[in-house]
Amino acid sequence: MPFVDLSQGVPVAAKWIKVRFSMRAKKPTSPLVAKVWSGSPDKAVVIKGPSGDAFIKLEVAQTLSYDHADGIDLSLKVVAYKLDDTAGPPAESV
């Protein structure tokens, strides 16, 4: 599975990230579905559709993995992060 090194924009202490995604099908029959996770793939967040936002808990510091069907172009951008685990997903902007 491909992974992304987030060390350029996300501190080691970050526990949550907010990711803005966009997907485009190279083939008209390709479903716009992908999985994004940090740590175990069992805890993957399923993202669907051409674009949107998703919150991912960082189980492994500064590392994000993803998977999608063949025929999909996936773009991910971290737009916020949170340094602690209290009260849920991020509020701080990157």
Write out key terms for the chains shown:
94 residues; mainly beta; 4-stranded antiparallel beta sheet; 0% helix
Description:
The chain has 94 residues and is mainly β. The chain is 0% helix and 51% strand. The chain contains no helices and eight strands. It has strands spanning 3-5, 16-25, 33-37, 45-48, 51-57, 63-68, 72-82, 92-93. The strands form two sheets. A four-stranded antiparallel sheet has the order 1-6-3-4, with no helix packed on it. Strand 3 (33-37) and strand 4 (45-48) form a beta hairpin. The radius of gyration is 13 Å and the shape is elongated.
Integer average pLDDT? 90
Please give the radius of gyration in angstroms: 13 Å
Looking at the structure, what is the overall shape? elongated
The portion of residues assigned to helices is: under 10%
What is this entry, summarized?
The protein is mostly beta strands and 94 residues long. It is built from no helices and eight strands.
Please specify the SSE layout and strand pairing:
Elements (H helix, E strand, L loop, with lengths): L2 E3 L10 E10 L7 E5 L7 E4 L2 E7 L5 E6 L3 E11 L9 E2 L1
Antiparallel strand pairs: 1-6, 2-5, 2-7, 3-4, 3-6, 7-8
